[in-house]
Amino acid sequence: MPYFIPVRKNMRDNYQGVSRLHDDIDRLFGGNMYPGHWMRQNWPERVAEQPDITPQLDVTANGEAYFVHIELPGVSPEDVNIKVADNVLTISGEKKNETAEGVRVFVQERGYGTFSRALSLPEDADAERIRAFAKDGVLMVEIPRRKPEEARTRTIEVQRG
């Protein structure tokens, strides 16, 4: 049975404290793995690679297609990028904070910033015909399934050597 494998899952949203500690330890030891680690010159690049938020998603299928539903409330379709490369579907973009300049914020629980989710596609996924739709804060990506190729029978002539 084909299945999707999340390529990378950021647990920051669900386990903020533990995730932050893990990220700090990872940066500390990761920073020591390259020559010149005392200079810390690669840290800003590594931090920039991490998404700020991780939208939740569901993956379902029927006989015709796979469906990825990803929650993106407050994200306009123009701020979403969907790409397929090396059999990996990547959905990324940005949820912008539209709080007006000079406004005093008392409580801010909603997350803003960049996001990225990547899924490895099953073998029967037809990457050439993927379509995406946005409705009511949910992005739906439809990935059609290829029909299994029928086994062809062919007679091979044996030649004298």
What is the fold's blueprint, element by element?
Layout lengths: L4 E4 L7 H15 L12 H7 L7 E5 L3 E7 L8 E6 L2 E8 L17 E8 L10 E5 L2 E7 L17
Antiparallel strand pairs: 1-6, 2-3, 3-8, 4-5, 5-6, 7-8
Runs in which pLDDT lies below 50 for 5 or more consecutive residues are: 9-13, 31-48
Q: How many domain modules? A: 1
Strand content: 25-35%
Structural class comes to alpha+beta
CATH class value: Mainly Beta
Strand order of the largest sheet: 1-6-5-4
What's the number of helices?
A: 2
From the spread of the alpha carbons, the general shape counts as: elongated
Give helix and strand order, one letter per element, not per position: EHHEEEEEEE
- Give helix % range: 10-25%
Give structural notes.
This protein has 161 residues and is of the alpha+beta class. The chain has one domain: Immunoglobulin-like. Helix content is 14%, strand content 31%. The protein is built from 2 helices and 8 strands; from the N terminus they run βααβββββββ. The chain has helices at 16-30, 43-49, and strands at 5-8, 57-61, 65-71, 80-85, 88-95, 113-120, 131-135, 138-144. Mean pLDDT is 79; it is low at 9-13 and 31-48.
